[in-house]
Amino acid sequence: MASKSTPTTVSNKKINPLVGIIMGSKSDLPIMSAAQDFLNTMGIASEIAVVSAHRTPDLAIEYAKTARARGLRVIITGAGGSAHLSGVIASSTTLPVIGVPIKSSNSMDGWASVLSTLQMPNGVPVATVALDSAHNAGILAAQIIGTSDNDVAKKLDKFKQEMRDKIINANK
Questions:
Q1: pLDDT digits over 90-105, tens only?
Q2: How many domains does the chain have?
Q3: Residue-wise pLDDT tens digits, 124-135
Q4: HEC states along the chain?
Q5: I want to staple 101 with a disulfide (CB 3.0 to 4.6 A). Which of 4, 38, 76, 114 is the partner?
Q6: Domain holding 108: CATH number?
Q7: 48 falls within a domain
């Protein structure tokens, strides 16, 4: 991973990523790509990388410490097993961190991941979404960005209205 974000090209314009999406293993990509997919629908540029708290701890800390300077405003982390990635990242940055616990073969049906992501000590908050719910992490990241970006806020309003309409139409 380079210490500089690679701009994303959208409509022939280069946009620096606002959201970093990192995971402990490449095998987490099918889950974590849902966050990037949602952010793409909102027009929010993101970067995605494998950064392990256990196998590459120095890289994880460097990623967190350089994130703000690289233009990131939110970091989404996803990890299975003992899932220390979210806590390591949150302890090394003041940016909001959203943790996605991932069900894996070594996480006791996902509970180890959930508890390791959720149970942070005071001073090291991690907003935690449901097991394997990177889509919700993408929504939450967009909502954080939408607090200061009216275009994103309007797209989120439309997204929420479409969800409401879908339920109302299902009852017709």
A1: 999 999 999 999 998 7
A2: 1
A3: 999 999 999 999
A4: CCCCCCCEEECCEEECCCEEEEECCHHHHHHHHHHHHHHHHCCCCEEEEECCCCCCHHHHHHHHHHHCCCCCCEEEEEECCCCCHHHHHHCCCCCCEEEEECCCCCCHHHHHHHHHHHCCCCCCCCEECCCCCHHHHHHHHHHHHHCCCHHHHHHHHHHHHHHHHHHHHHCC
A5: 114
A6: 3.40.50.1970
A7: yes
Rounded average pLDDT over 58-77: 97
Cα dihedral 122, 126, 131, 137 in deg (nearest 10): 160
Is residue 83 exposed (0-12), middle (13-18) or buried (19+ Cβ within 10 Å)? Answer: buried
